[in-house]
Amino acid sequence: MRSYRPALPALAAAVVLSLSLGACSGGDSDDAADGTKTTTVRFGYIADYNGSSLLAIADQEGLWKKAHLKADYKTFTNGPLQIQALGTNDLDFGYIGPGAVWLPASGKAKIVAIDTLTYADRVIAQPGITSIKDLKGKKVGVPEGTSGEMVLNLALQKAGMTEKDIKKVPLDATTMVSAFVSGKIDAAGFWYPAIDTIKKQKPDTVELASTEDFTGKAFPTAFVAGQKTGSALSAKVVKVLQEANDYRQEHPDESIKAAAKLLKVDESQVKADASHVKTMSTADLAAKTKDGTVDGWLKDLEDFFVSTGQLPSAKDPETFYEGDLYTKAQAK
Question: Is the distance from CB of 302 to CB of 101 less than 8 angstroms?
Answer without folding.
Answer: yes
